[in-house]
Design a protein that fits this description.
It is built from 22 helices and 23 strands. The strands form six sheets. A seven-stranded antiparallel sheet has the order 1-22-21-17-16-11-10. A seven-stranded antiparallel sheet has the order 9-4-3-13-12-2-23, covered by helices on one side. A three-stranded mixed sheet has the order 18-19-20. The protein is α+β, with helices and mostly antiparallel strands. The radius of gyration is 22 Å and the shape is globular. It has one domain: Glutamine Phosphoribosylpyrophosphate, subunit 1, domain 1 (4-Layer Sandwich). The protein binds glycine.
């Protein structure tokens, strides 16, 4: 970036040293198991469970619950998500969909006022809240695939919430950036603001006693109090007090689902990832099917031609995302056609090697923030793996807290296309396939992915960052699988992002200037971004005689630290 050009050499050297140290701190190597989460205490919670004999599912759930305590802008019991579980002894993957669902009162035009979309209503307050899926999804994961009890896997999060923890950089930034909205909700203000009304700062101790009580109930009784008991009543009251229409009966009707995972090949690798209602797996698979015949290794990682082909493939795939993807229980997503060799060949024929085509040739980014979502990757000593992405959508979701429960409710209703062509908080447009309807799940970009080679887990990855989840996960996978980078280099490497609309190519500062110039000459409209997504990944770097070496990497972009033993 021009900023770097103008920077004295000493500062560049210092920055490089900081980045190298940061990278070393964020990675961890072990010979049994590993956890990569966006917060060191969440990775540690997962590791504690692995060390205690839990499997990858137990560790992932422990890390998810801990993230909800220490980074509550990213996820929590008021949100929802997706999990891919690979069981080594079965040689099979499973997908859990615990995405939020629209209440029964929801309808196609619920956010239209005088013919115009009211994006404030879909993003903040009671109408923005979808039925949370997190308690049901985590309970399903443990009862179906875990080896420990809910009480055991909840223990590390409960301890953090009860004893308190130091506020770290990411949360401090989110509290600072959202003080006004947090102050407008009595529960959120009580949790996150000090008596003088200022947010807690880095290094301050934060205790979450109301959340500890909710976690205690989850540990003892599972998800039922959240869907039928006292907590359900409080969720209804909180949502209604802020203008929403979600009821206890909506909560009572919620079910987490198991779906067949989406499987796709890339060379000798097999990817298992999330099918709709997430667009993440399908979009990644579509881009890979377009890119596979090119000799990307020959072009070179982050070369201008590679990034041009990647950007054009992303435009094509995101255009299909906008048109075709939605909740498969409501719309027929034509995945077989979108993932067919014929569709990929048709996209390749359209791509020009020298010019970026206008997005209209393939059928608005205000960039994503990585603040409302989190990802956890785990591999255990037996070769089981979990990729779990979970979210409250944008930072602190709807900004509605459940009184005395410590729960931050999601604003996932904004992931619907509230009016055809109207961009959501991530600049994504959509149409009828993702329109609002009662009991429908909004489309997601979450992309929890497990890569297999010769029937063994090779890599686990996923990200936060709205649509940048897709591009950051995809580039990290390609960096390892195609460009043979180590997992820490793959996660740290600078990234690009294109989501078809708007016509702009987001570029991180680390992409070299000659490459940026070459992309501009091809007609891409570049826009500098400080961070594109936040990836958490684990790579199995060696395996023989039942022993494996695992390397986990938490993305320095969000300040995470991985853990392994
Ligand atoms: N809430 C972000 C996503 O699901 O894509």
């Amino acid at each position: 970036m021009s900023r770097l050009r103008a920077t004295p050499l000493a500062c560049v050297v210092t920055l490089a040293c900081v980045l190298i140290c940061w990278q070393a701190r964020a990675a961890a190597t072990g010979s049994h198991g590993a956890v990569a989460a966006e917060h060191r205490l969440a990775s540690r919670a997962g590791l504690e469970i692995l060390r205690a004999g839990g499997n990858a599912v137990d560790a992932a759930v422990a890390a998810v619950l801990a993230t909800g305590v220490v980074n509550p802008s990213s996820s929590g019991l008021g949100g929802g998500g997706f999990m891919i579980v690979y069981l080594a002894d079965e040689g099979r993957a499973h997908a859990i969909d615990y995405r939020e669902r629209a209440p029964a009162s929801a309808h196609r035009d619920m956010y239209i006022r005088d013919g115009k979309a009211d994006t404030k209503a879909s993003r903040r307050g009671g109408l923005a809240v979808g039925i949370p899926g997190e308690p049901a999804g985590l309970e399903l994961a443990i009862t179906q695939f875990g080896s420990l009890t809910l009480e055991e896997v909840t223990a590390p999060a409960l301890q953090l919430a009860t004893e308190g923890f130091p506020v770290e950089g990411h949360l401090a930034k989110q509290l600072e950036a959202n003080t006004e909205a947090l102050a407008a909700d009595a529960e959120l203000a009580a949790i996150f603001l000090r008596e003088d009304g200022r947010p807690y700062r880095e290094g301050d101790k934060l205790q979450r006693l109301h959340l500890a009580d909710s976690l205690q109930k989850f540990a003892k009784k599972g998800s039922s109090p959240f869907y039928a008991g006292a907590i359900a009543e409080d969720i209804e009251t909180a949502v209604r007090a802020r203008g929403g229409t979600l009821t206890r009966s909506d909560l009572g009707s919620y079910k987490a689902l198991q779906r067949p995972p989406l499987a796709t090949g890339y060379g000798d690798w097999r990817l298992v990832t999330m099918p709709p209602p997430s667009s993440g797996g399908g979009t990644i698979a579509q881009v890979l099917s377009v890119l596979e015949p090119y000799d990307l290794g020959e072009l070179g990682q982050n070369s201008s031609t590679y990034l041009h082909l990647l950007a054009e493939s992303l435009k094509a795939a995101f255009s299909d995302r906008a048109k075709f993807y939605g909740d498969p229980d409501f719309v027929d997503v034509p995945l077989a056609r979108l993932l067919s060799p014929g569709h990929a060949a048709a996209v390749r024929t359209r791509i020009s090697s020298v010019r970026a085509l206008p997005s209209a040739a393939y059928g608005n980014v205000d960039g994503g923030s990585d603040s409302g979502t989190t990802h956890i990757s785990v591999v255990d000593k037996d070769g089981n793996a979990v990729a779990c992405t979970t979210s409250v959508n944008t930072a602190f979701g709807s900004m509605v807290g459940v009184p005395n429960r410590g729960i931050v409710l999601n604003n996932t209703m904004d992931d619907f296309s509230i009016q055809p062509g109207v961009a959501n908080a991530f600049g994504l447009v959509g149409n009828e396939a993702n329109s609002v309807a009662a009991a429908k799940r909004p489309l997601s970009s979450m992309s929890p992915t497990i890569v297999l080679s010769k029937g063994q887990v090779r890599m686990v990855a996923g990200a936060s960052g709205g649509p940048m989840i897709i591009t950051s996960t995809l580039q990290t996978l390609l960096n390892v699988v195609e460009f043979e980078m180590s997992v820490e280099d793959a996660v740290t490497a600078p990234r690009i992002h294109h989501q078809w609309m708007p016509e702009m190519l987001a570029v991180e500062g680390g992409i070299p200037e000659p490459v940026r110039d070459s992309l501009t000459r091809r007609g891409h409209r570049l826009r500098p971004f400080s961070a594109i997504g936040s990836v958490q990944a684990v790579e199995v770097i060696g395996s023989s005689g039942g022993k494996r070496t695992v390397r986990a990497m938490s993305d320095p972009r969000k300040g995470g630290v991985a853990a392994a033993y």
